[in-house]
Structures are given as structure tokens and as C-alpha cells.
Amino acid sequence: MNDKQLLRYSRHILLDAIGIEGQSRILETHALIIGAGGLGSPVALYLASAGIGKITLVDDDEVDFTNLQRQIMHTEARVGMAKADSGQQALRAINPEIDIIPLKQRLSGEALDALVASVDIVLDCTDNFATRHAINRACVHHKKPLVSGAAIRFDGQISVYDLRDDNSPCYHCLFPEGDDVDEVRCAVMGVFAPLTGIVGSMQAAEALKLAAGIGQSLNGRLLLLDSLEMEWRTVKFKKDEACAVCGPKGNGRSGEYLRQADANHESSPAVCHRG
Ligand SMILES: [Zn+2]
Asked: In what order do the strands lie in the sheet with 30-34?
């Protein structure tokens, strides 16, 4: 670490649990952030400010005027710009010393698979069920830790699936595919602005802990927030031994999962993660 880095990250280095060693590990980490919207904004801002050395920021959408209420990485001047590019500008302004790779595409199939294989941590900041399952499959296949967040109306969810551990549950263990009767289109749903900030900031905290190798992650625990009552609930869950993705017969361990993920992606409507 050079003198400027020692200064920039001094308040992390002062923390006994992080120190120079932990901050060095953070600097060596490549994080994949899928979705540069309400959750992706605080995730990307904190990971960049805290010195995650390499960030790949993926979003195929453009900044819309209605995004500005909660997607704090973007500005009114950048309405119409690709969210990945707008995000890169925001992150560069905060920390020009890290590597930021904007990707203007909807990740699926082999592109998603190759990208997940190349990173250390994956952050799911998307807003639809089909993409969440495709990301989970790739993370199971490549044994990558997945930090997942969701926010709709006043309800938030966050969990970690540390798939480096074979005994860890995956997203599919908790939310089986096809169990989508309650799903609703998010384009017409309201979202309480700071809710995305709360959930996204917690995703960033979990990712930084994983990168530094400190603390206890949310693996096996789902946190549920009712921000109207401002009450948290914790649901503990275990690996589903019969899981179709991470179980012994799971397609996460065969070459089949890519085709299935693509098929699901094409056929499923754009829906929100269930609240
Ligand atoms: Zn599973």
C-alpha cells in the first residue's frame, strides 16, 4: 500500500479486525455488481470508497428521471446515459485509484458464467426473479459467495450464500423456482427511497467482510426488514438436500444449468423478488 492508500483507508486500518492485512485483501478483491439501480448504487459507492480493487458494474438500462428518487449514484444531468457508465463516473469521482469496468448488457448464459468465474464476490442487485436464479446457478457452479438484496415497497431482504462451502444453502434452497404466484411487476410498484440505501449498504458491509475475511456473514440467515414499522426479523435456513440447483442431483453441477437458466430468462416476465 502506498502513502496515499494508507491515508485514504486509515479509518479501516485503525480497526483491529481489518488493519493493513484486511485492507490489502479488500484491495485485491474483484467484485461483480449486477444491477446499477437502487441497491447497486449504495453497494457500488461503498465498495469503491472502501477500496475494493476491481469492480465490474453491469446494467443494460439507462438512467431514467424516475430513478433519481432512490438510485443515488446517478444524477439529473446523466438522465439518458447508460447506468453502467453513469455509475463508473460516480465511482471514479470518489476513488480514481480502483479499476471500474462498466458493462452495458443483460448478463445471461455463457457471458454470465464466464464473468462469475472470474470474480471473487458477486452482488445481486437485480429486480427480477429469473435473473436472480441465473446468478445463483452460476455462483453455485463456480463456488462464489453471493450477497443478495431485495427491496420493494417498504420491505427489504438481505442474505449471503457463501457457496465456497458445500454445506451452504443457495438462493434456490430458500426461494424455489416456479414458486412465483405472489410475484408482481416492479415497474408499477412503489419503493421507499432509503430502503434501497439500507439494504444496499448492508450488502456492501457483507461483501467487505467477506473480502477482508472477518466477522460472521449472513450465510444461513435471511434478514427481513419492515421499514414502515422499522422492525427486523431473522429467519434461519439450511441447505435443502434435495435442492434442484445445489443438491447432489442439482443442475448447478452439470453443464445443463446454462441452458435451463437461459430458457427461464427468456420465458419469465420481468418480476420483482418476492417481498
Ligand atoms: Zn440450493
From this structure: 99-103, 54-58, 30-34, 121-124, 145-152, 155-162, 221-226, 231-236
